[in-house]
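#struct-help
A.M.: can someone run this one for me? Single chain, 328 residues.
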Amino acid sequence: MKNSDRFRELLRSPYRESLIGYIDQKKALGYKFESQTDLLIRFDRFASLRSDASASELPEKLVRDWVESPELNTDQKRRRGILIRHFSEYLQQTGVTAFLYPKGRYKAPERYLPYIFTREQIDTMFRQADKTAADRPRTVSCADTALIIRMLYGCGLRISEALNLKVSDVDLENGILHIWDSKFHKDRAIPMSDSLLKLCREYSAQHNEGKVSGIFFFSPDGTRRYNPTTIYGRFRDILFYSGIPHRGKGKGPRLHDLRHTFAVHSLRQLSERGEDLYTVLPVLSEYMGHSSVSATQYYLRLTAEVYPDMIKMVDSSFGDIYPEDELL
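D.P.: on it. Structure tokens below:
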């Protein structure tokens, strides 16, 4: 089913056809555009109840009323303002009079500073995860979490990528993970270390014996994939018993920080080997499934901050090219 067919049934406002065209355009350019589509559907429902909505015009009052609803927090208003401005720009390109919501009306929240684990902390977490799994043999998610956190750190995966793995995606003969249609619609093949491959084989023999399809990490009832919240809860327990303090909601450490740590430790290791980081960045970018090398360059600054001896090398080689808003 085409995107236009799928959304046509949900949209009711005078902007219906324009919204379908805008969403299709974004997807054709390679954006997943999923959360934005959900938000535009909400806008359509709002506009369908407004008498000032018109296919030939997107008026200022309608836009401001939707963006500046008192029920929303600042970040929700900011996201709405950015999205509706982009939609207005699309409308103007198609000949429709549309109000452009002003830029910078709401400030973005302070950027999260990734928590970079030390190698000693990583080792401690692995030992604690194994101990927890051994102490709770009937709690399947504990054993699964022990392997999942190793994958996140050892392969630089996003948690969604690990939980979406199917049995057929984990090549236990050649030691390759196959990631399909991930962020930015990226597919990639990721080689595993010998130690991680050994653990995957042992896990699969115990939990996936005889299975040729289905989810690799399946929930205790065996019918569905894990919710990331479940794994995050186990991860928080591991942090606590490993003596690694949590800094509070929104401050981490988070599961995603294992991916950040993978990148920083990889760059440090490559630097210690005398590798030219400028030439290895494209390889690391492909390995991690980034949309561009500029996203990977962000990790150079993190690496220099964690390992101060690298600052001169990073500054002299890359200068001020670190992106401020690239999503990793």
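A.M.: thanks! Residues 317-328 have pLDDT under 50 and may be disordered.
D.P.: also worth noting: The domain at 119-249 is CATH 1.10.443.10 (hpI Integrase; Chain A).
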